[in-house]
Each structure stands twice: as structure tokens, then as C-alpha cells.
Amino acid sequence: MNPVVIVFPASNCDRDVAVALEQATGKPPAMVWHGETELPDTDFIVLPGGFSYGDYLRCGAMASKSPVMETVIAKAKAGTPVLGICNGFQILCETGLLPGVLLRNANLNFVCRTVTCRVDDAQSMFTSGFTAGQYVDFPVAHHDGNYFADDATLDRLEGESRIPFRYVDNPNGSSRSIAGVINETGSVLGLMPHPERAISPLLGGIDGAAFFRGVLEATA
Amino acid sequence: MKAKIIITLKSGVLDPQGKAIESALKGLGFAGVSDVRQGKEIELKLDETDEAAARAKAEEMCKKLLANPVMENYAIEIMA
To answer: Which among A101, A107, A108 is the nearest to B68, CB-wise?
Structure first.
């Protein structure tokens, strides 16, 4: 496995996800600055959480136009698995690789706590560490995690089993309690919660470690 | 030329900030206020002398970056 983590100005979970990937693969991932136009040979790309470009204009909007994103989009379209966590999810929506958009939380609060998600679909490579119906605990920390898409899109996502994680107790007003969405081909996941913050009992949970182990085994 | 771009949330898109503004206005005693929606305005100068060319450029900017069609509408005003 050769994961790559893209680092944007004001990414702040890039090092956390690097630790989680190293725990799962045994070696540190390549870290690639957003201004690059080439990626090292990779079979898994991660867009980390944070507040790229200070969330100016719209969350993820500027980052989605970064030079490196042209390469990321091309690789994603060619089938390389891509995971976007939190701000990474917002960036993926802004690129159009995922449908919908993440709006300001319905209650306007920045929500920062551990939430329980239900694994709704364990068929995807991103849920292979889990079984369908399983409950997992991941931390969330966001102001704009309120997933929105029109009803036709939401119906399609449900019909095509493209909602692998849903909140049990919706913290942000997200449509149909969506915590994560995958693309048509199943190779791109946007996830609002932070599995990389739940990889050790010292951090309060290990469900994130199972998440990364599952993903990396499925993509190996 | 100058362009003024007004970006608004599409109808049906939840606007919690608009709701908070509405409740603050009501708290200040403004009666009969409803449907408060918050948008944004972007002003920029363009090195164009032709209005149609300036509008086309602003339109392209909206499509590529300034607005997200999933949740937003935009209107472009071109001024000398």
C-alpha cells in the first residue's frame, strides 16, 4: 500500500491521518503539498480534515481548485480510491466527485464530540472492516457538516447503497442523517466524522483503527 | 469594467444563518419579519471594455468558482 495524504493550507488533520495510515500499513504515507501537480505512485489518496483556505468563499471551494486536485480528480476517475474526511468531504463535493454539498450545521453550533454511526452498507471497500448494522463511534468536529442534496439525488444514493455511514443521533441537521457518501463506482468516500481520531484506547476509541485496516486490506 | 455578483441560496436550501438573523431581528422588536435569507456579494474589476465580454468572463468565474450550483443561484451586474 502506498497511501498519499494531500496537505492544503490550513489542513489540520493531516498528521493525525498519517499516524492512522502508518498504524494500518506499517509505514508513513507520502505527504503531498497542494501546490504540486504530480503525485508519487499511489493506490490510496486521502484528503484530510481541517479548514483549508480558512473556509473562505465556501468550505472546500478554493482547495478543490488547487493545482494538485486536477491530478487527484484524474486518478479518482481512473479508479484510484480516494477518502475525504471532514474538510476533505467538503472538497470532494466541490470537485463534483461526490454529489451534494455540506451546509452550515442546522443548529449553527460547531459540534465537537464523539458520535455513534450505523454502518448501513458493508459492501463498500470503505466498510470492509465492519458488518452491516454495526454501530461505530467516531469523533466529529465541524461547523459545516449538514449534508444537502435534492430529493432525487438522496433517493438515488439510498437506492444505490451509497450511504455507508449514518448518524444515530444527527448532530448537524444532515439530510437523512447522512455521515458519509460514496461515488457511483464505490471508489470515493466522503466522511464527516474523523476515524483517524479513534485509533487507540488512549484517544477514547478504536473503531477508526478498524476502519483504516478494513479500507487498506480491501484496496491492497 | 466592474462586475457585481450577487450569490443567493436556492429556495429550499436551509439557511440557518438567515433564521438566526430573523430571530435576532424579532428579539429587537421588529415585528412582521419572515423568510430572512443571507447571501453574499462579490465585487471585482475586469480589464474588459466590452460589456458582453465582461459578463461572459464573470459568468465563467461563477461557474468555475464563485457559486456552487448545488445550493446557490447567482446574478451578475456589469458596470462601467
So the answer is: A101
B24 interface with A at CB cutoff 8 Å: no
ipTM exceeds 0.90, yes or no: no
Dihedrals φ, ψ of A68, to 5°? Answer: -65, -25
Cα(A92)–Cα(A167) distance, rounded to whole angstroms?
Answer: 20
Cβ atoms of A88 and A190 closer than 8 Å: yes
Residue A167 β-bridge partners: A117
CB contact under 8 A, A101 and B66: no
Strand, coil or helix: B55:
helix
Cα–Cα distances in angstroms (integers) from residue B42 to residues A118, A188, B24, in the given order: 41, 33, 25
Q: Residue B3: enclosing H or E segment and its boundaries? A: strand B2-9
- What's residue A90's pLDDT? 98
Q: Which helix (H) or strand (E) holds B18?
A: helix B16-27
Residue owning grid cell 440557518: B16
| Mean pLDDT across B58-70 | 96
pLDDT for res A220:
75
Q: What does the alpha-carbon distance between residue A76 and residue A70 come to, in Å, rounded to a whole number?
A: 10
Burial of A190 per CB tally in 10 Å (0-12, 13-18, 19+): buried
Q: Best of B7, B8, B14, B19 to disrupt the A interface by mutation (most A CBs within 10 Å)?
A: B14
